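Reopening this ticket.

The earlier resolution said the output was attached, but the attachment link was broken on my side. Pasting everything inline this time so it's all in one place.
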Amino acid sequence: MKKIFIAGHNGMVGSAILRKLNCLNRDFLLTRERSELDLLNQSAVNDFLLKERPDIVYMAGAKVGGILANSKYPAKFIYENLTVQSNLIHASYLAGVERLLFLGSSCIYPNNIENPIKEEDLMTGKLEWTNEPYAIAKIAGIKTCSSYNREYGLDYRSIMPTNLYGLNDNYDPADSHVIPALIQRIHYAKKANAESVTIWGSGKPRREFLFADDLADAAIFIMGLEKNIFDESTKFTNGYLNVGYGSDITIEELTYKVIKTIGYKGKIIFDRSKPDGTKKKLLDSKRIKNLGWEPKTELDQGLHSTYKDFLSSINEK
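Inline output:
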């Protein structure tokens, strides 16, 4: 029996990891509400981990958001993510945590780099300006884990997921990522019988999307690997692996998939005065796939499940 702490268990990724581990039914799962444990409070995090002494930590707690949120709150994004991850990693070291997983993001990679993006492409060019503070924080998290591994002989691992969506996502129009933002906007346009919906950007950028439950499978898979196998697979990357679906889609194509899922009959207007972000972002996930992991959820299936979850969240059927 292992004692496992899931930081951020109420978020989309954390709740998916919690569901998957509950299904395995073999470990003692440890969670705390934000009101019980403030991850921004270093003393509180130290005290909690030193008292509970978990064997394994999944770091799924982070401040996340789309282009609008990243552009509006750059200070909050860099401060909160740097603080939370530093608190958790250092306190885990103090508490003797034997294995930790840090969840990064594909935004760590340079803008306009050749696709598919390999792990070795990290820090080889300029970041996308709209989410640079968040990306810098995530890069710092990877480097913190690898530094603690080097200095203290630990087993702290990192994975870099592509764009995520799924159950228990954040549908706040000011803070959400592209899929929940589209679902929320198009659903209410349908309810209001609106003639059209305006979407940020040109619709031309390409993005890769991974269902959060598939990422949870990948996280648990990576944490189950023997240390020598993980180390061998990441010897050229300082301890991190990409986790992607394997193909991408334009934002315009995605928008029409969401329209089909919801059943909206109006027009879509793309506002080209708003930023597009990176033109293309597709990860090279060969390394984790060569280890034996594959995503299971196709985009149409995932969008259907996500929309049902959205309806449940607003008490509609």
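Reporter confirms the inline version is readable. The CA atoms of residues 171 and 271 lie 20 Å apart. The two ends are 40 Å apart (CA to CA).
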